[in-house]
Amino acid sequence: MPAQFWGQKTFCLLTGASQGIGRCFAVEFARNFGAGSHLVLLARTTSGLEQTRSLIKSANPQVTVHIHSVDLGDPDVELYKTILNSDAWAGESFDLKLLVHNAGSVGKANTLSKDMDDHLEWNRYLSLNLYHVTSLTAEFLRSFPSGHRCIVNVTSLCAVKPFKSMGYYCVGKAAREMYFKVLADENPDLDIINYSPGPVDTDMVSQLINEVQDEETKSSFITMKSTKTLVTVEQTTQKVIALLTSRGYKSGDRFDYYDQLPQ
């Protein structure tokens, strides 16, 4: 792997950039990009994307920001192709091509696994949490077939540990993480990391507290919220920045917020 990660002229596409972890990633990553970089932000909410763009301009005015209001729950390869092959950077060369898969959802946390029999609900959930990821990744690799290409997949402890009432989320994260492990094995020239950001204090935690059916799972989130032991978006963003700086992981690996950084 190249010794340097940050400070290069970078093309970056980041999903779920209108709030929470995605917004913080976008701003702090951009702060570390070199002059002439382009950052493409995808999310459903235009107003949230505009706010993120404004923060990025203040953090690093040498980065050009492009926003697209997109429903990632309805995967569209032709749309992804159009976005990735924009005239805005046609003919430019980039030292680093970075794809950050942050967008995702919890799913129905009021449903236990024994009742998850609705195939239409499964399709809706997997369209947002898996299908768009594989489609967008494929188009990203077609658009940038060589050079240093890095993919950051935001995963979760739920990908490797079961949590009651969170069956949709656990299955979606596990499938997504395994996809990137296989992709890394098939393409040793790619730089892929599955990053688990820890229990971050975002709207998702509030949703789980309100909706999760299992009392044990609900109690654990209530306790973390009340004792202020949830991870902040700033903390988890700085951790992944340090991880990418270290270059000390094997492509396809998973890394958790609580793991010690590679020396």
Structure description:
This protein has helices spanning 20-31, 46-59, 77-84, 119-143, 167-186, 203-211, 215-226, 233-246; strands at 10-15, 38-43, 64-69, 96-101, 148-154, 191-196, 253-256. With 263 residues, the protein is of the alpha/beta class. The protein has a 7-stranded parallel beta sheet with strand order 3-2-1-4-5-6-7, sandwiched between helices. Strand 1, helix 1 and strand 2 (38-43) form a beta-alpha-beta unit. The protein is globular and about 55 Å long.
Helix fraction by DSSP (H/I, runs of at least 4): 40-55%
Strand order of the largest sheet: 3-2-1-4-5-6-7
Structural class by SSE content: alpha/beta
Coarse morphology:
globular
Low-confidence runs of at least 5 consecutive residues: none
Sketch the topology as an H/E string, one letter per element: EHEHEHEHEHEHHHE
pLDDT averaged residue by residue: 95
Biggest sheet layout? 7 strands, parallel
Instruction: Count the beta strands.
Output: 7
Q: What's the gyration radius in Å? A: 18 Å
Number of helices: 8
Strand fraction band?
15-25%
Distance between the termini: 15 Å
